[in-house]
Amino acid sequence: xxxxxxxxxxxxxxxxxxxxxxxxxxxxxxxxxxxxxxxxxxxxxxxxxxxxxxxxxxxxxxxxxxxxxxxxxxxxxxxxxxxxxxxxxxxxxxxxxxxxxxxxxxxxxxxxxxxxxxxxxxxxxxxxxxxxxxxxxxxxxxxxxxxxxxxxxxxxxxxxxxxxxxxxxxxxxxxxxxxxxxxxxxxxxxxxxxxxxxxxxxxxxxxxxxxxxxxxxxxxxxxxxxxxxxxxxxxxxxxxxxxxxxxxxxxxxxxxxxxxxxxxxxxxxxxxxxxxxxxxx
Length: 281
Known about the structure:
The chain contains ten helices and nine strands.
């Protein structure tokens, strides 16, 4: 693909990000783009004069080296999608551009990282904080767009921006799903055909549960029932189900003790692929 013939500029170095106009919107990604990413780009395009998208598989947020190695990388296809979506700049740096020296910073996320993904993936959110703060420093956006599929990540990034006074408006965007309900994820392309057919069962159980279980059983029983229903599909194995306050992310002891609304969060293994999802209650 010859990007010189298009208005989209591909940048490998921070110094190449020049020539912005007006309000700058930013969509950070790890590539392997799908409709969920493109929905973020679309929201960014509507709200901002300049659209910047990054493609960078961040090594510091992977606690499993094999997961980092196997993460899908489809840059040529990604660039074609972004050009068609009207993106102005794509920042696709090498690792040494983001981390010219090892990043040893440790973040305090106020407990938001001590539950769910943070509990099951030690160090993951500290790596997210490292890369997102670094990208914000390089791109210098006015607004940044993130999907609610990674709801805990979205809350943590909002906390970090307030804590560090970064001056970036964080815009959360709804989960994009396939027609069968499966949340769009770059990891979906790694699923076998059989596991892909089984995976929509996750959302089917979650969406049914939020209608039928609230107030009918205790929160603890609801989590147990949801786990059992997901695991009734032999190709799926639940890692965790949590019903948590959507503001503090802390587990709810009962249906009525949340500061904000409640959400149900799930992490489920479909074979070797780990899928996450969440739904408002």
